Automatic annotation (TrEMBL):
Annotated Gene Ontology cellular component terms: endoplasmic reticulum membrane
Family note: Belongs to the auxin efflux carrier (TC 2.A.69.2) family.
Coiled-coil stretches noted in the UniProt entry, renumbered to this chain: none
Originating species: Hibiscus trionum (Flower of an hour)
Transmembrane regions listed in the UniProt entry: 6-30, 42-61, 73-94, 106-127, 147-166, 239-257, 277-297, 309-335, 347-368, 380-401
Location(s) in or outside the cell: Endoplasmic reticulum membrane
Protein role: Involved in cellular auxin homeostasis by regulating auxin metabolism. Regulates intracellular auxin accumulation at the endoplasmic reticulum and thus auxin availability for nuclear auxin signaling.
InterPro entries: Mem_transp_PIN-like, PILS1/3/4/5/7
Renumbered residue ranges of the record's region Disordered: 182-204
Compositionally biased residues, Polar residues: 182-202
Gene Ontology annotations of biological process type: auxin-activated signaling pathway; endoplasmic reticulum to cytosol auxin transport
Protein name listed in UniProt: PIN-LIKES 1
Membrane topology summary: Multi-pass membrane protein
Keyword tags: Auxin signaling pathway, Endoplasmic reticulum, Membrane, Transmembrane, Transmembrane helix, Transport
Length: 403
């Protein structure tokens, strides 16, 4: 019975995602046409610019205080390690399977960015309510469950909308500012010598100096020249997504006590701003899932993603990363970085390595208008497998924590 109850707890949030995806697919059918290409694009822009930023900003502002951040400081590092190891495994997968250029960013996104938001928000409190839960008193466990899951959502969103967004942007839309591929930076001494000098003329190869060696441009000048070239190509306003900016705002509100007292809490004078943003944020996850379902309809008609790539991503997210997560948390315990008596916190840290890819990856591909179908197909199969693997890993995590 304990296994069955845990299976239901773990499988329900995944099934909800699959069912909502099915709804999105249905309303995108040609006979329905409620979520065709144009409405899909408009809805995605609404998610990208309004709903996701609202969700992340309110989650951080309401759950993160300066004290909680000091106490739970290892969670951002744990998530960073999950993204790092996921990226390494994605790089190996790309080397083996050699997918097309525009799919390589999607592979990195799906392998590195897990659904560390809405799945833990549903799963962790539900696990606390189980009578046989290894996390002690259900009331005490539930009191800590939402802050842990909310911090996971917020920190994960920062990484997804900064690192993953930047990586996918480079792979999917190189030179997005002007529609052209960025110029190759000069690397060799001959190329550097041929760069224009301050008087507008090419720099000739320098003559041999008194010591008989060839004079070269100093390392500092090379670095400054490259930084200048890169800074001219990059528009920071376009690199950083609205959700990443919202995460910074939410963190400032949560940790700055005077601002927090103005906005957060039942007695806050400006609490209506926070509650309004929270209502907007609640719509982000279902809207993202509906968009994924609409893209899946096109993906089922044909996509460029191969079975080998899909199996590789499933292997990374459902086998290798959870094993790495166990090692990371055990190492943190050994080094004294995580409190040994907080089993629920350790469970959340391990769970962050075992979840399927984050839905925000699909939002990004829809925003870039490339790779939406392939991402939807990848999401479908990874979530179908996660319905079973997430349950098995949750049981194993609990057994390890009680052993």
């Amino acid at each position: 019975m304990w296994f069955l109850n845990l299976f239901i707890v773990a499988v329900m949030p995944v099934l909800k995602v699959i069912l909502l995806t099915g709804v999105g697919l249905f309303i995108a059918l040609d006979r329905i046409k409620l979520l065709g290409p144009e409405p899909n694009r408009y809805l995605n822009n609404l998610v990208f610019y309004v709903l996701c930023p609202s969700l992340v900003a309110t989650s951080l502002a309401e759950t993160v205080t300066f004290q909680s951040f000091v106490t739970l400081w290892f969670m951002p590092l744990n998530l960073l390690l999950a993204f790092f190891f996921g990226s390494i495994l994605a790089w190996l997968l790309i080397k083996i399977t050699k997918p097309p250029k525009h799919l390589q960013g999607i592979v990195i996104g799906c392998c590195s960015a897990g659904n560390v938001g809405n799945l833990p928000l549903i799963m962790v409190p539900a696990v606390c309510e189980e009578s046989n839960s290894p996390f002690g008193d259900p009331s005490v466990c539930s009191m800590h469950a939402r802050p842990y899951a909310s911090l996971s959502l917020a920190v994960g969103a920062i990484y997804i909308w900064s690192y993953v967004y930047g990586v996918m942007r480079l792979y999917i839309k190189p030179g997005i500012e002007n529609g052209s591929t960025p110029e190759t930076l000069p690397t060799s001494s001959t190329q550097l010598a041929a760069l224009p000098s301050s008087n507008g003329h090419s720099n000739p190869m320098h003559p041999t100096g008194f010591d008989g060696t060839i004079a070269k441009m100093s390392a500092s000048k090379k670095i400054m020249r490259r930084i200048k070239i890169i800074s001219e190509k990059v528009d920071l306003k376009k690199v950083f997504a609205p959700t990443a900016i919202a995460a910074i705002v939410g963190f400032i509100i949560g940790t700055a006590s005077p601002i927090r007292k103005l906005l957060i809490g039942n007695k806050a004078p400006l609490r209506v701003l926070d509650s309004s943003a929270y209502i907007l944020g609640e719509a982000a996850i279902p809207c993202m899932t509906l968009i994924m379902g609409a893209n899946l309809l096109r993906g089922l008609k044909g996509s460029d993603v191969s079975r080998t790539v899909i199996l590789g991503i499933i292997g990374v997210r459902n086998i290798f990363l959870p094993l790495i997560g166990i090692g990371v948390v055990k190492a943190a315990l050994y080094l004294g970085l995580v409190a040994s008596d907080d089993k629920l916190y350790q469970f959340v840290l391990m769970l962050q390595f075992a979840v399927p890819p984050g839905m925000a990856v699909g939002t990004m591909t829809q925003f870039f208008q490339l790779g939406q179908c392939e991402t939807a197909v990848i999401m479908l199969w990874t979530y179908v497998v996660a319905a079973f693997s997430l349950t098995l890993w949750s049981i194993l995590f609990m057994w390890i924590l009680t052993w």
